[in-house]
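Sequence in, structure out. Go.
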Amino acid sequence: MKAIPYGRQEITEADEQAVIETLRSDFLTQGPKINEFEEAFAGYVGSKYAVAVSNGTAALHLCALALNVQPGDKVITTPITFAASANCVRYCGGEVAFADIDPETFIIDINKVRELLEAHPKGTFKGIIPVDFTGYPVDLEAFRKLADEYGLWIIEDACHAPGGYFTDSNGDRQSCGNGQFADLAIFSFHPVKHIAAGEGGMITTNDEALYQKLLMLRTHGITKNPDLLERNEGGWYYEMQDLGYNYRITDFQAALAMSQLERADANMAKRKAIAERYDKAFTGKKMVLQKQERGFSNAYHLYVIQVEDRKGLYDHLRENGIFAQVHYIPVHTMPYYRQFGWKKGDFKKAEAYYDRCLSIPMYPNLSEQEQQFVIDKVLEFTEK
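Output:
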């Protein structure tokens, strides 16, 4: 059997044709496919606006810029995430504070966030970056209520969660990234994500002012919009009105992402079927599974198990051609963040999670035969 990674992109003939057609068109970048993809993605998650950018990290950075994060501003996020969720604050000179996780769902614990806020004077913190880790949705309705109480903005890091949703207090489904409760949300189109564009990212929002600011910031702070120009000297004229960046995506990446978006619902159904088979095989065994609360629909970017001998299982799986991964090393324990005073022992639940967590293969084209092989090899080690 061929090697089985924890995640893998699927490229179909339709994907290839979409890219080829764009390569043969008049535009390689800044063409019509970008806007087409933005509109389709906004429709998919239910937001008013979407801004496509070069990658998920660029999306986070632009969000922090658009929300005017300044040197010394303090922002709260989870230690169990990819470093970019925190780094975007540091890019702007801000300070990162962490709040521990819920040990059952693995996502940031709103009670720990409240404790942190209550321990400091109002105005100490500027915002919160909750993460839909593994694809499990954060209850943004609850976070919005807390944020409003303390005058905070919210960036939802939904890189793992396109297609995920939670049920609000009115019984309505709230899709990850729909902008109903978060000021801004971000997504990634890295090859192992739900939509693979090679690289790429998206920002969604319902705030038109933030949307217009993002459009300018992703292109050097430059605008040609006649309504925004201080003066207009002709059709060639543009103005740099802010210090922006080149965070643009290409037309052929957008074409690939658009093609993949067309089968997003079908692939989500496959991910959930894979998760159900894992749940059935592993429930009651010598491991801990992520809690799935009623009314919360996990998008299953990852399927994480916790075991006592994580290193032993990791090595056992690799010996059998199964390349599991660890998500994530707690950000506060990284050498860069330790210089700010963070240390091991600060967030015991996050650290305990890290010591035992392992992400096993989860992607739509994982065959039942391959999945059964993974299940057999996991149980072969954990049940011995």
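Check: The mean pLDDT is 97. The chain has two domains: 4-261, 264-382.
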